[in-house]
Specification:
The chain is α/β, with parallel strands linked by helices and 495 residues long. It has helices at residues 8-17, 30-38, 53-66, 95-101, 104-120, 151-167, 198-205, 207-214, 240-250, 265-268, 273-283, 297-313, 318-341, 351-359, 397-403, 417-425, 441-453, 482-493, and strands at residues 19-20, 42-45, 71-74, 125-126, 171-177, 219-222, 256-258, 288-289, 361-363, 376-380, 408-412, 430-434, 458-461, 473-476. The radius of gyration is 23 Å and the shape is globular.
Length: 495
């Protein structure tokens, strides 16, 4: 794909080119600008880097002053996983809500508007959408990030999302190949294993990725998961059988392959980030995502040096590193062209709220009379998974307070959560907000306590609605984005 040059400068530049590091702060540090001048071609942004759209636009402009073709990537799924609106909650519902509506045109419109906002801030590469089929309802890390448990539904919405996002000039990165939906372990914490036969994988896990490839997804992100039916020895990110033979060969994918974060324990705790990065590039990955947790110049230097050393001792073919670097540059060329030609007319700035309202599912044992007095919102709060983070607010309290001034709220967890919520609420009507009740026995027990004492309690499920609906009114929002909370609050208050 590219002409090889064996001189040290070219080798070092290629090693920097394949890295996608993060950094701390809301402006680019000197070390990052220096690395861009030396060959670094991509930068990853996280919530810590973003204070406002205006600040983000200034940051991306600062990066492009140093290198005009730098890829600026972000982990912006909408819904529960938002970086653009990390401090307020997202203006867009996530995948599970879109899957619940099952209108592919709506999914395309939501992805387009999200892409339009990213592009306006100078972001041209989004590590989204999640194409994982959430076949395991107990999955601790995917859940509402998935369009659903049906492979065909996930496939058509993945394709619609890719199409909408890229129509706005932002490259899509479909994840987590070959599929993270049937896991019971969070790969941020350990190495998950999917023990199913190849036929199930082909029909279930791979279907959305085939659809994404057909839709022209410019990038695919690998998963840090062990799939013995495909490779009994190495996780997907480090597996030539999975990345090169399956994804490139059998599925015919020719775009950029990006790793999930290399500091995640599934890799860092087993292979280490240096060896893991070398093995990933050798297996067929083209870009190394790192920076969610390790966000400094020393990390960049360590990975650059590990790649260069691996080429020099023969552990990594120079041709493979050069090919990976060229694929990064090719994506940068595509984003420049796509940005110039993107037609962003006719955007619907309210499309996220429209989608959240359509995704809402209500169940009532009798006709529900909207509340007129300020309630007490009892948020039964689980530990947030690492992908979502705990800095983004969620729930219905803020939106209910806007509609019913005087609304109060508290957060509860553990075996005494129900009784504590009753005491805190006093005589006020209770709105109990839960997130994946089916995965948390203490949450089920807390609801039992609340409903036994106060059967008029309103229950809002903001995770995957697997538990039976109960309460005077049960609302399933299919996600915890800010707009999902607003849609629920409107029903509770009759707005």
């Amino acid at each position: 794909m590219t002409t090889l040059a064996s001189d040290t400068d070219t080798l070092t530049r290629d090693a920097l080119t394949v890295l996608q590091p993060g950094f701390a702060g809301t402006s680019a540090p000197d070390w990052l600008l220096r690395r861009l001048g030396e060959g670094l071609a991509s930068v990853g942004l996280f919530g810590r880097n973003i204070a406002s759209p205006e600040q983000l636009a200034a940051l991306t402009a600062q990066l492009r002053t140093e290198r005009d073709d730098v890829l600026v990537a972000i982990d912006e799924e909408g819904g529960d996983v938002t970086r653009l609106e990390v401090r307020t909650g997202s203006s867009f519902p996530g995948n599970h809500a879109l899957g619940a509506v099952d209108d592919t045109d709506l999914t395309r419109q939501v992805a387009f508007e999200l892409g339009r906002r990213l592009a306006a801030c100078g972001v041209d590469f989004n590590w989204a959408p999640s194409a994982d089929v959430n076949s395991n309802p107990g999955n601790p890390v995917i859940g509402v990030r998935s369009f659903g448990a049906d492979p065909d539904l996930v496939a058509r919405h993945t394709a619609a999302y890719v199409t909408g996002l890229q129509a706005a000039g932002v490259a899509a990165c479909t994840k987590h190949f070959p599929g993270h939906g049937d896991t019971a372990v969070d790969s941020h914490l350990a190495l998950p294993r999917i023990a199913v036969d190849p036929a199930v994988l082909a029909e279930r896990e791979l279907a959305p990725f085939r659809a994404a490839i057909a839709a022209g997804s410019r990038a695919v992100m690998s998963a840090h998961i062990l799939v013995p039916a495909l490779d009994p020895d190495r996780p997907a990110t480090l597996s030539r059988r999975i990345l090169t033979e399956l994804l490139r060969g059998e599925l015919g994918y020719d775009g950029l392959i990006v790793t999930d974060g290399m500091e995640m324990q599934a890799i860092a705790g087993t292979y280490g980030i240096e060896r893991g990065s070398v093995l990933a590039i050798a297996a067929g990955a083209d870009a190394i995502c790192v920076g969610g947790g390790l966000a400094d110049d020393e990390t960049v230097r360590r990975l650059r040096d590990a790649l260069v050393a691996a080429v020099r001792v023969g552990d990594l073919p120079e041709e493979r590193l050069a090919d990976a670097a060229e694929r990064v540059r090719a994506l940068a060329r595509w984003t420049a062209s796509a940005a110039a030609s993107a037609d962003r007319a006719g955007a619907r700035t309210d499309i996220g709220l429209v989608a959240a309202r359509r995704a809402l599912r209500r169940t009532a044992v009798a006709p529900f009379t909207p509340l007129t007095d300020a309630p007490y919102v009892a948020a039964l709060t689980p530990v947030a998974n690492i992908a979502v983070g705990d800095e983004t607010p969620w729930g219905v309290a803020v939106e209910l307070a806007r509609l019913l001034p005087g609304t109060e709220t508290g957060s509860f967890a553990g075996e005494d959560a129900g009784q504590a919520a009753l005491v805190a609420a006093g005589e006020r009507r209770i709105v109990a907000v839960v997130r994946d009740e089916h995965r948390h026995p203490w949450m089920t027990a807390a609801l039992d306590t609340l409903l036994a004492a106060r059967p008029d309690t309103v229950v809002v499920e903001m995770g995957v609605p697997q538990a039976p609906p109960r309460g005077a009114l049960h609302l399933a929002t299919h996600g915890a984005a800010r707009v999902c909370g607003r849609a629920a609050a409107e029903v509770i208050a009759g707005a």
